[in-house]
Amino acid sequence: MIPNFSDHSANERTYLAWVRTAISVMAFGFLLERFDIFLLVATRSAEHAAEGLHTRASQWLGLGLLLVGALMIVGATLRFYRNRRAIQASESSMYGDSWVARAMAVLLVLMAIFLTVYVARQIAALS
């Protein structure tokens, strides 16, 4: 029997959940990076030429989300091994969140706000 098996398996499930989330963020970043293709097709099918469409921002934001997803995987891996060592240690330790996780959460919220404003401006330019 593995000592503290339920703790180790919970740690692994949490790690895998972080990896799945990171893959989703990276997939959304790739989709967003290719958003300019949608805008190009929408502009060509519009009756009038849409002025003010800027696709460069979606490319940078998409690349940013790809980077954030990669950093999430690195952070999740570091956290997995830190928790694994803490579970195996005989002495008790404090469990706390890291400033990196908080910074990434703030970064994702800022990207979401920017994306909302960006898409609203693109829709306004198309109509």
Automatic annotation (TrEMBL):
Keywords: Cell membrane, Membrane, Transmembrane, Transmembrane helix. Its main location: membrane. It comes from the Bacteria. It is found in: Cell membrane. GO terms for cellular component: plasma membrane. The keyword Transmembrane helix applies. Residues 7-86 form the DUF202 domain. It is a multi-pass membrane protein. The chain crosses the membrane at residues 21-40, 60-78, 99-120. InterPro entries: DUF202, IM_YidH-like. This is DUF202 domain-containing protein. The lineage of its organism: Bacteria, Pseudomonadati, Pseudomonadota, Gammaproteobacteria, Lysobacterales.
